[in-house]
Amino acid sequence: MSEDPSHQFSPVRLHGGITNPAIILQYSNRKSLRESTIRMATEALFSFAVERLGDKLIQEANFLKDVSRQADRLHRDLRAMQCFLEEADKKQEEDSRVRNWVSEIREAVYNAEDIIDMFILNAQSLRTNFFLKRGFKKLINRYKVGKKIEALQLGLLDISNRREALGIQNIGEGTSCLAQIQMLQDLRRSTPDAQEQVVVGLEKEADKLVNQLIGGDLRRRMISLVGMGGIGKTTLAKKVYNHTQVLKHCPGCRAWAYVSQDCRPRDVYMQIIKQLVFTSTNDQQVLEMVEKLQEHELGDFLHGHLKVKRYLIVLDDVWSCRDWNSLAKVSSNDPDCLGNVFPDGGNGSRLLLTTRDKDVALHADARSTPQEMQLLSKQKSWNLFCGKAFLDHVDADRYPPDLVQLGREMVDKCNGLPLAIVALGGLLSKDMSHTEWRKVHDNINAYLAKQGSQTGVMTVLNLSYIDLPSYLKPCFLHLSLFPEDYVISTRKLFLLWIAEGFVLSAEQADQQRMKVTAEVYLNELINRNLIQVVRMSVNARVVECRVHDLMRELAIRKAKEQNFFGTHDIANPLSSSTSNSSLFSSKCRRQSIYSDMERYASVEHNTPYLRSLLLFNLGHEICRISQLDFIGKCFKVLRVLDLEGVEVESLPSIVGTLIHLRYLGLRHTGLKLLPLSIGNLRSLQTLDVNNLKQVPNVIWKIQNMIYLYMEGQEDDIPLKIDTLENLQVLSGITFKQWIQNNSSKLTCLGKLKLQGRYELVEGVEFWTSIAKLRVLKSLYLMASEESSFPSLAMDSCLYLSKLDIKGHMQKLSETFQFPPNLSQLTLDSCRLDCDPMPILEKLPKLLTLRLRAESYLGTEMHVSANGFPQLKVLQLFELSNVINLNIEKGAMPWLMQLHCYSSTSISGVGKLSNLVKVKIVSNSTIPVTRRNVKILRKNHLYWDHS
Known about the structure:
alpha/beta; 32 helices; 37% helix
C-alpha cells in the first residue's frame, strides 16, 4: 500500500459517509450525473487540498501521533467549510466580498497543509539526532505546531462567523467524489482528429488563399493572414495547408512552424527541418548531428535544402518585424531584401504567415497584399455555433425553438469572433436542456464587455472555466505553467497531474487506473475546446497537445486569482526591472522558469512552501551543480521538480532531503550519476531520467515508486527493484538486472521495457519471470547491436496485448509461440530473412501491425486470403528491400488504415473495402486500377509521394 497522501480515498473522503449501494444506484441516471457534475464544479482547487490533508493525517499517523488530536480537529473544521462552498462559488463571480471569503478559506487550507508538511519534515530530521537531544526538540516541535494549529482554528472561526453576513447558506454535504467516479465510468474516450475542425464562413477566404498559393508569378511570395487573436487565422491556414491542390503544388515539401511571441529562430528552423528532411527512424543519428549546429548553420542548412525545391512553409503567429528579420536573416540595412534562409528559386514557392500586426505582413513582403480576416456575419456565426452546439449544420427548423432563440441571442453577444463562438458552443453542447441554456443566457450579459474588446473575449472563455467540474479545474490551471505555444507531451502531463494530486481514484488499490483517468481528463478538456491536439497516435490517442494563447491567458488569470502559481509576469519572469526579492509572492505554490537560470538560482528565494518547480531551458543554457543546491535549501516541501532539458553536470545530494517529492524529471539533462541520497525520497512516485552511466542501487528503498524511467544505462550493474510493489511502469532495466529480481513481487507492473544483451539470460527462466506479471499489458524488448533474439516462446504471457521487439531476431517465432491475446505488434531492426506475413497473419486478435526499418530484408511480402482477420492498422516503415506487397482477396477484411513509408508497390488495395485512410510516402505505388480509384474516391482517401 502506497503512502502517497494525495492519491488515496480514506473513508472520510466520501462526503456524508455515502457507502449505501442503494444511494449509489441513483447516480446511474444521466440527469443525476449531470446535476452532480455541476455540484462538483463548485469545490474547485481548494477541495483537493482538503482531501490531501485528510489523507496526510492517515498516512503520516506515525509522525503526527503527538499532535493527532489538534490535526484531526483542524481537518474537521476545514471539511465543515466545504459544506458552504457550492453557494459561495455561485456568488463569488458577482460579489467581491464572497470572493474574498472563498480566498480566505483557500489560504486556510494551504496554511494547514504547510503546517502538517513542515511538521513531518522536522520529525523526519529528528530521527537522526541523539536520543536526549531528539526528545527535547520533539517537544519544541510539537508545541510549535500545536500553537500554529490553534491560531489557524481561530482564523477559521472568524471566517465561519462572517458566512451568514454574506448570505451563504448551509447546503449540506455534497456527493462530488462519488459523482466523479460514477461519471468517469460513463465517459468514453473520444478524441477529435487533429485535422478535424468546424470551419464555417471561410470558404471564399480559403479559395482565394489557395489561388494565391498555387497561382500567380513564380517568384517566392509571402502570403499573410492578418487579424485579431481568435479570429481564425490558424484555422484557415490549416485548411489551405491540407488542401488537395496545395498538396499537388508542393509535393513532399511542406512544413508548419509555430513561432509565437517568444520567437526563437533556431527552434523554428528545427521544426521545419524535422518535417522536410528527417522523416524516418534511420535518420536519427544525422538528426542528432544537425541538432548540434549553431543557429546560423541551421539557417544555411535549411536554405541549401530548399534552394532547388518548390516549398510551402507556414510561419504561424509572428508577432513583430524584428521576429521576421531574425527568421529570414534580413539585413537591418536592407529591409526590402527577401532574406537568405527561405530562397527564391523562381519556381512558385510560398511562405504563409499569420500575424496580429498588419505591419509585420507588409514588412515581410511589401509587394503582396495581406489578407485581412473579418469577423463573421450573424448567419455565419450562427452556422459555426450550430456546428459546435448541435454538432451539425442542418436547417434551424429542426432545432428546439426555445434553444434557437436563446442561442441566437448568445451568439450575437460574441460579435462574430470565432474562438468565442466555438467556446460557447462547446459549453452548451454538453447539456441541451432549456434550464441549462437559460442559465448561461442570463449570465452572459454580465460577462461580456464592449463589442470586440479583449476583456469580452476572455469573459466568454471564462464561461468554459466556470462550467468545468472541480476535478478538471486544477488540470486546466496547471497548463498555465507551460510556455506559450509549447508542445506538451501527454505522457509527462499525466505524470505531473498525478504527482500534483489532481487525479482522483476510488480506492488506493485502483492506482493502476491513474493514467487512464488522467487521459479521460485530457480528452474532456479537448472536447471542451480548452486544449488543442498537436499529434495523435495511430490508435487515435493524443500524444502531444498545446494550449491556445488566449486559453493560456485565461488559465494564467484564474491561476493568479487562486495563488496557484506566482503572480509575477511569467512571460518574462526574470526581467531586469524586477528586484531579486520580489520575483514571486511568498504565498506562491508553483513556479515555472523559462530563461536566465543562472540569475534565478542566485536570487534570494522567499517561497518556503513552494510545491512545484518546472524549469524550461528555452535558452539552452548550462546549469551547473552550484546552481541546484538552492532547491534543497529553499524549497523543503517541494512535490514536483522538473529539470528536463536543463544541462546539469551532477545532482546535489541535498535533493535527498526533499521527502515530500513525488515527481523528479531529469530527462535530457546530461546527468551521468545520481546521488545515493535519492534513496531517501520516501514519497517519490515518478523518476524520469535517461542516459545515465549507472543507476544507483538504492531505488529499492523508494517504496512509493509507481513510474520508473531510466533508459540508456551504460553500465549493466545489479539493480534491485523487486521491493517496489506499487510499480506500474518500468522502462530501461537491462535483461541481466531484471532476471536478478523476483518478478512475482511486482504485482502492479503493467508496462515493461527491457534492453541490453538478451543472451546473458536463459530463455525459459526469462519468459517464466514475465509470465508471473499478471497485469502486464505492454512489453518492449530492445537488444543491443551486438546481441540478438532467438525464436521467442511467449505463449505463457496470457495477459500481454502489446509487444515491441527491436533488434536482430535469428528466427521469427511461430504463430502459436506469440502471446494469445496480442493486439498490437511492432518489429524493428529484426533483419528477418523470411516473409513474416505467413506467420503474423494467423494471429487471431492482432489489430495493429508495424514493420519498421530493416525488420524484414526480403523483397516480397504476401498476405493470403483470410489473413489478418481483425487487423485495422498496417504500417510499413523504410522497408527498403521490399519491392512488392501482394494482398489477396479476402485478406485484412477490417483494415482501416494503411501507411507505407518505403519504395514498395502494393497490389490488392481495391479489395480492402473498409479502408478510411491510406498514406503512401516516398516511392511507394498503388496500381491505378478502376477498382483502386473507386475505393479511394469513395472513402476520400489520398496518398502522398514525397
